[in-house]
Write a structure and sequence with these properties.
The chain contains eight helices and no strands. With 210 residues, it is an all-alpha fold. InterPro entries: L-PG_synthase/AglD.
């Protein structure tokens, strides 16, 4: 597979993940506002959601309205942004495959909440499922900002602050975030070993029939 194609696939997956995560955060916002005590924390949650919606709106505009800005068009980053927007437009095309992709992207976030709840129970942390649904998803959105390796550091800060605003101790929030991060590393190692052991034909996809 050409590198450019692989990059487009990865970016499309990230767009799907981002948009569905914003949707989950929107669903959990009423719970978050009910649990929060400080107006500044409520403002943070609303601002975070509004920022996510703003990014989605910008992608939608770029995908459907052709902007003629010569100076920007000569900028390599802007060209890449247009490519992402074009792929986003394709992701809005009704089809069985696209619908499955959206459903899978949404399911992954709900599964992550379930994984966090299981980890919290296993670690003996008294964190309600509703709290994790409302705040852990927002923390994971903040961890998507590409300024750290695998979200480490950003995720921990977000967990400690957001879960702390809901009454969870800093130690519990930090332990949960680290356990979640280590679990992702472990799953990545298992997946990597499976990829090394399996032959190339095992991962072959017949695109026309997919």
């Amino acid at each position: 597979m050409p590198v450019g194609t692989a990059v487009r696939i990865i970016l499309a997956v990230r767009v799907l993940s981002f948009i569905t995560l914003v949707g989950v955060i929107a669903a959990g916002l009423p719970i978050a506002l009910e649990l929060l005590k400080e107006p500044r924390d409520e403002l943070l949650m609303i601002t975070l959601l509004a920022s996510g919606i703003g990014v989605i709106a910008a992608l939608f505009v770029l995908a459907h309205i052709r902007l003629r800005v010569p100076r920007l068009e000569r900028w390599a980053f802007f060209q890449k942004l247009l490519t992402v927007a074009g792929d986003f437009r394709l992701l809005l095309t009704p089809s069985h495959g696209i619908a499955s992709a959206w459903a899978a992207a949404l399911a992954q976030h709900l599964l992550r909440v379930g994984v966090l709840a299981a980890l919290a129970t296993g670690l003996g942390l008294d964190i309600p499922l509703a709290t994790l649904f409302a705040f852990a998803t927002a923390a994971l959105l903040m961890a998507m900002v590409p300024i750290s390796f695998g979200g480490w550091g950003i995720r921990e800060i977000a967990f400690v602050y957001l879960l702390g605003a809901a009454g969870v101790s800093a130690e519990a929030a930090l332990s949960l975030s680290i356990a979640f991060g280590l679990l992702r590393v472990l799953m990545g190692v298992i997946g990597g070993l499976a990829w090394v052991v399996a032959n190339d034909g095992h991962f072959h996809v017949d695109a026309p029939s997919a």
